[in-house]
Amino acid sequence: MGSERLTQIAADAVGAAQRRLPPELRALARGVAVHYEEKPGADVIAEGFPTDILGLFTGSAHGTEFSADHPSPPQILLYLENLRDFSEGDTEVFREEVERTYLHELGHYLGWDEDDVAARGLD
């Protein structure tokens, strides 16, 4: 499956996830850019993330000020090739994992740490 098709499936899954959020979270979620990349870049790997990372939240969490540590706007990165590999090419599993990964990273934007994300079943 080509990258354009993977991107479209992923964008549809993110949109569906956003529509199911409570209204107050939906508005926040739509304010965070989502980027679809084939694989994590060398800069992400150099920061110590594994090469098979599925997604990443960068920037400042909601309600916090921009800082020197996070000078860029908040964004969610979804790594489509890694998500496809994880789903073993099954389109439905890919769609579900995109949604789960998106919600996990959205949780970080909302200020949830890994324990908070896991408590909500998004680990």
Q: Rg to the nearest angstrom?
A: 14 Å
Specify the number of helices: 6
Going across the biggest sheet, name each strand in turn.
1-3-2
Assign the structural class, choosing from mainly alpha, mainly beta, alpha/beta, alpha+beta, or little secondary structure.
mainly alpha
The main pleated sheet reads as: 3 strands, mixed
Distance between the termini: 26 Å
**Percent helix:** 40-55%
Total individual domains: 1
Give the integer mean of the pLDDT values.
89
Instruction: List low-confidence stretches.
Output: none
CATH architecture assignment name: 2-Layer Sandwich
Count of beta strands:
3
CATH third-tier fold name = Zincin-like
Beta percentage is 5-15%
Instruction: Spell out the helices and strands N to C.
Output: HHEHEEHHH
Shape: globular
Q: What would CATH call the class? A: Alpha Beta
